[in-house]
């Protein structure tokens, strides 16, 4: 069974991006080539931005987004986010069809769809036309039914407890 899988990590609980990064650690151990495209986090700093360098050349990370639309520290107009989202889909399509990778991760793509930045049709098309052997991982809460239907593996992270509920802020090395 060397058919590629479509994997979805969704749900409210913490661990979606972390789970995808766990696969990066595992797969690069076998010298598999992995590309992670970050749809939302472009203007922020995350530990994986730095540790990814240590997994090069097997691992490549591409940050495209510009923070959440209308939330937190976002100052860019929506049209700007939409333009970047179109660019992100173009880059994802290129990476998926490049033949250079065993695994492609579209991090936070489900949020990008829900924010109306990325068209669901474009994502469905990416899943349906991916090279048969390529594993494709999509993360972000609120995964659309159609994407869940097309996927082979879907895990919903369920929040039972989160320190955020007690007012504890995001922790370096754990949350970012
Ligand atoms: P992680 O990157 O830690 O695996 P995630 O991918 O499941 O989290 P996102 O929705 O991408 O979750 O969250 C982005 C940021 O918000 C991360 O810093 C994450 O740790 C934090 N976070 C995730 N889930 C929750 C939650 N239920 N409450 C508060 N903060 C959260
Ligand atoms: Mg995430």
Helical residue percent band? 25-40%
CATH homologous superfamily placement: P-loop containing nucleotide triphosphate hydrolases
Cα Rg: 16 Å
Shape type: globular
EC number: 2.5.1.17
Enzyme class: transferase
GO molecular function: ATP binding; corrinoid adenosyltransferase activity
Keywords: Transferase
Provide a descriptive summary of the structure in words.
The protein has 176 residues and is α/β, with parallel strands linked by helices. It has one domain (6-166): P-loop containing nucleotide triphosphate hydrolases (Rossmann fold, 3-Layer(aba) Sandwich), CATH 3.40.50.300. It is built from six helices and six strands; from the N terminus they run βαβαβαβααβαβ. The protein has helices spanning 16-28, 47-51, 78-97, 109-114, 120-129, 145-150, and strands at residues 6-10, 34-38, 59-63, 103-107, 135-139, 153-156. Strands 3-2-4-5-1-6 form a six-stranded parallel β-sheet, sandwiched between helices. Helix 2 (47-51) links the parallel strand 2 (34-38) and strand 3 (59-63). The chain is globular. The model has no long low-confidence stretch (mean pLDDT 91). Adenosine-5'-triphosphate is lined by residues 12-18, 108, 139, 141, 157, 159, 162, 164, 170, 175-176. Magnesium ion is lined by residues 16-17, 108, 139.
């Amino acid at each position: 069974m060397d058919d590629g899988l479509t994997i979805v990590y969704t749900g409210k609980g913490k661990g979606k991006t972390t789970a995808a990064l766990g696969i990066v650690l595992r797969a690069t151990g076998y010298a598999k080539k992995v590309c992670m495209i970050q749809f939302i986090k472009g203007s922020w700093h995350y530990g994986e931005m730095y540790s990814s360098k240590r997994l090069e050349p097997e691992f490549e990370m591409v940050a495209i987004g510009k923070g959440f639309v209308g939330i937190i520290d976002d100052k860019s107009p929506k049209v700007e986010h939409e333009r970047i989202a179109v660019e992100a889909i173009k880059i994802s399509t290129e990476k998926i069809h490049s033949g250079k990778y065993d695994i492609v991760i579209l991090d936070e793509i489900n949020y990008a769809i829900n924010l109306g930045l990325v068209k669901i049709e474009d994502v469905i098309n990416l899943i349906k036309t991916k090279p048969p052997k390529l594993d494709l991982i999509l993360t972000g809460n609120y995964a659309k039914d159609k994407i869940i239907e097309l996927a082979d593996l879907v895990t919903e992270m369920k929040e039972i407890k989160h320190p955020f509920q007690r007012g504890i802020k995001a922790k370096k090395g754990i949350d970012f």
